[in-house]
Amino acid sequence: MHRILHISKYHMNQNDTFRKSLNLFDSTAIVAGSMIGSGIFIVSADISRLLGAPGWLMAAWLLAGFLTICAALSYGELAAMFPKAGGQYVYLKEAYNPLVGFLFGWTMFLVIQTGTIAAVAMAFAKFLGIIIPWISEEVVWAQIKFVKFGPVQIVAIASIIFLTWLNTRGIREGKRVQNTFTTGKVLLLVLFIIIGLGFSSNSFAIRMNEKIFWQPMQEGPGGTDIPVSGIALISVLGMAMVGSLFSSDAWNNITFTAGEIINPRKNIPMSLFLGTSIVTVLYLLANVVYITVLPLRGEPNGAGIMERGMQYALNDRLGTAAISGLFGNYAVIIMAIFIVISTFGCNNGLILSGARVYYSMAQDKLFFRKVGILNSRGVPAAGLVVQGIWASLLCLSGTYGQLLDYVVFAVLIFYILTISGIFILRGKRPEIERPYKAFGYPVIPAIYVLLASIIVIVLFIFKSEYTWPGLLIVLLGIPVYYFWYKKHE
């Protein structure tokens, strides 16, 4: 209790100089723009290999979208109650205690935000390499165990440095880039869907996919397909959803910027709903394009696009394969340009918002003091720089898939805790004004907690090589918290 009072008193003594610059359109652009990266054009290939049926592919995306919208609708209540910079960090601190809030911020910094920034930056560089051959994944200048250094890493890090610098210049500069790139990539995604459904549909692919629509299959010994059902199907679906959940993540970033939003009690809940709903619909339609253009099942050594199917699209580039029938060899370049634009805009939103969490932690004396200071343009420049340095180091290690698995597991744990916090705060703090109440309470929040918990358990059992390190990172934050606590007591 003494610690909580100390934190609250510290906050009251601060001069909050955040600039109120983000309206509903800006906020929605941050939600949607932070969600749409490269995943929608890639991860359905892996989901197809795991599930082997178009109906279950759509189910993985539909369920991920449903969970995302449920969570967004629930977060609205918390955002309206605590319209402060730091968002989810503040909600966890208020619902539980400062330790839980710190563990979120700690994991955000080490894995969630910076890991996502690194993964998106690597995707940006990889697809830029299709346009500029010098940026090749095949070229590695130096490698020490899992640490690689080459042109792809250089470009990825350069993009992080540039966007970090840009966002130190003020929220107005950051939001202009976000609005421009979000509008552009939403329009391009709509164009992709129109072209795919209107001009690229393939009757052969449609017939093949209709036959196996609800017949999930996995590759068994000797390359033979074996049916999947019951508990095994639930487990496989949970693992397959890593990709769809990652592609649908980062919607909560808007809550981190609450201190800069005009009328946050209204605009944060509304932008959460609008942004997640728009992206979910676009993602579902994009997958409809895939299953009307390409047969889901294929051969890894197939001679052409149809023979390889969705499962074995070259380098998992489903978006390219989907429009190749219309644009031929130009499809590779067209899709690369699209993904470069998409990932650049996505990372701007992630970089812009992430530093606000570390700012709020520093205000509570739980992070480096300078990170809690705003520069002359009203942004946490030191937090942006520290975030950029760590994300750049992550670019040198691991792979896109490994970072993805770390991020999804850690994210789900804190989403579950945050939405459970709605129930806790209803009993613990009934006197707080709630301008917006969680839609469908208590059913919708409870459904999210239940389904997300099942996915966490599945990942913990079947992807333990990634989830164990993620859990360890969270737990390592406990001694770090007490170090900061004793240091500033």
Descriptive tags:
single chain; Amino acid/polyamine transporter I; two-stranded antiparallel sheet; 19 helices; 4 strands; 71% helix; disordered N terminus
Summarize the structure.
This protein has about 500 residues and is mostly helical.
Could you outline the blueprint of secondary structure elements for this entry?
Blueprint: H1 2-12, H2 24-35, H3 44-51, H4 54-81, H5 88-95, H6 98-131, E1 142-144, E2 147-149, H7 151-168, H8 171-199, H9 203-211, E3 217-219, E4 225-227, H10 230-247, H11 253-256, H12 264-293, H13 305-308, H14 318-327, H15 330-363, H16 381-395, H17 400-428, H18 443-462, H19 464-488
Helix pairs in contact: 2-8, 2-12, 2-15, 3-4, 3-10, 4-10, 4-12, 4-17, 4-18, 5-6, 5-17, 6-7, 6-15, 6-16, 6-17, 6-19, 7-15, 7-16, 8-12, 8-15, 10-17, 10-18, 14-15, 15-16, 17-18, 17-19, 18-19
Report on this structure.
The protein is mainly alpha-helical and 489 residues long. The protein has a single domain (18-217, 236-488), classed as Up-down Bundle (Amino acid/polyamine transporter I). The protein has 19 helices and four strands. The strands form two sheets. Strands 1-2 form a two-stranded antiparallel sheet. Strands 3-4 form a two-stranded antiparallel sheet. The two termini are 13 Å apart.
Percentage of residues assigned to helices: over 70%
Multimer state: single chain
CATH-level-4 superfamily name: Amino acid/polyamine transporter I
Order of helices and strands: HHHHHHEEHHHEEHHHHHHHHHH
